[in-house]
Amino acid sequence: MSERVKVGPENELPEGWQGEVQVDGVGVLVVRYEGQFYALRNNCTHKDFPLLGGEVVMGRITCEKHGARFELSTGKARTLPAVKPVKVYRTEVEDGEVYVSAL
Ligand code: FES
């Protein structure tokens, strides 16, 4: 059974916030964008660079290494040089706390 990891209180994670948690031993990036929380593996599928800290525009996060963009909601690669999707995780808000778990 996959673990469910607490990220923190929703009201302390403002719009644009990014952070990393460990889920089943894997680094997972959590992003707040337009009020929603998104979680995806914190590794670009091009050369494994961390996605944490990348710019988010139109629901897509940019890998700072070579500029690939990934959809926050699906993990799909939308800009070269990445072609493979990034694994996405489930986010939930319960009693004011944000959680991440494997899908
Ligand atoms: S490592 Fe992310 S685009 Fe190359």
UniProtKB/TrEMBL annotation:
UniProt keyword list: 2Fe-2S, Iron, Iron-sulfur, Metal-binding
UniProt cross-references to CDD domains, sorted A to Z: Rieske_RO_ferredoxin
InterPro entries according to UniProt: Rieske_2Fe-2S (IPR017941), Rieske_2Fe-2S_sf (IPR036922)
Span of domain Rieske: 5-100
UniProt KW Metal-binding keyword: yes
TM helices/strands, residue ranges: none
PANTHER family: 3-PHENYLPROPIONATE_CINNAMIC ACID DIOXYGENASE FERREDOXIN SUBUNIT, FERREDOXIN-RELATED
Protein name: Non-heme iron oxygenase ferredoxin subunit
Originating organism: Deinococcus petrolearius
